[in-house]
Design brief:
Layout (H helix, E strand, L loop, with lengths): L2 H51 L1
Length: 54
Amino acid sequence: MTPQNMLYNKHVGLSEKPLVNAHVIVQVLKRLFIKNVWIIVSTLQHFWGDVIVV
């Protein structure tokens, strides 16, 4: 095993938990973002629909 591999393994071991947490946070943010985008898009469609009709 080369020193680089050992260092890499140690680094992976240390950063595993934060990465998992970050992944979960990203998933939650994505879900919230998608929900908000849907709300924003439907609101804009409604608004622009009214503008176009007028």
